[in-house]
From TrEMBL:
Annotated SUPFAM superfamilies: POZ domain
Cross-referenced InterPro entries: BTB/POZ_dom, SKP1/BTB/POZ_sf, T1-type_BTB
Ranges where the BTB domain occurs: 11-80
BP-aspect Gene Ontology terms: protein homooligomerization
Name of this chain's protein: BTB domain-containing protein
């Protein structure tokens, strides 16, 4: 018996992914029978392990948390603004998680990439089609209806040459509603111009109400 290697319980499994340790269970790892993990645990071929008995997996440790969350929950849950779909889909392919690949393709189809700004100052936002269609007859509904060509970058993101320092307020409105946090009065005036440009009438009205409250 190897006394230098602590015993893990039959159901507890440790994974050393790119130097980061993930603790999970056999039940989670075998949730998808044909996956890399199910085969790894059921195979008679010994796998590489570290000094603590954790399985060594030479992959991206940061993106792996999304793989683990999918296996634990059985559904795709990603943080707001997530944009590394290509990288995560590559990991899903490596780990033979077909269900994750399908979920990613579906999610990517629902999300729209928008690059806002000019030159090197551009910021990219990933927003759902539903959020962008919040107001009918807005700039964004025209952009998505495909009636006329719209500029895109090499990644397929729509390119909008506007003030990217204020656009996150537009995104907050589209995603959450009329919420304007951490904004100065001068920025509020500029944001009203952006709301007018994007033809977001409800956002304009909200800005007007905030201005009235500020003047009180």
């Amino acid at each position: 018996m190897d006394s230098a290697r602590p015993r893990q319980s039959d159901n507890q499994i440790g994974l050393n992914v790119g130097g980061k340790i993930y603790l999970t269970t056999r039940d989670t790892l075998t949730r998808y029978p044909n996956s890399f993990f199910a085969i790894m645990l059921d195979s008679d071929i010994p796998s590489d392990r570290d000094a603590h008995g954790n399985y060594l997996i030479d992959r991206d440790s940061k993106i792996f948390r999304h793989v683990m969350n999918f296996m634990r929950c059985g559904e795709l849950v990603l943080p707001r603004g997530f944009s590394e779909f290509d990288l995560l889909e590559r990991e899903a392919d490596f780990f033979s998680l077909e269900a994750l690949e399908v979920a990613l393709r579906e999610a990517a189809g629902m999300l729209v990439g928008i690059a806002v700004g000019t030159g090197s100052t551009r910021s990219t936002y990933m927003i759902t089609r539903e959020a962008l269609m919040k107001e009918k007859e807005s700039f964004f509904t025209d952009m998505l209806d495909g009636g006329k060509p719209f500029p895109r970058d090499t990644q397929g993101n729509y390119v909008i040459s506007r003030n990217n320092s204020l656009f996150h307020h537009v995104v907050d409105y589209l995603v959450r509603g009329g919420i304007l946090n951490d904004i100065t009065s001068s920025e509020l005036k500029q944001l009203r111009k952006e709301a007018k440009y994007f033809r977001l009438q409800m956002l304009e009205q909200h800005i007007q109400s905030v201005n009235r409250q500020t003047d009180l």
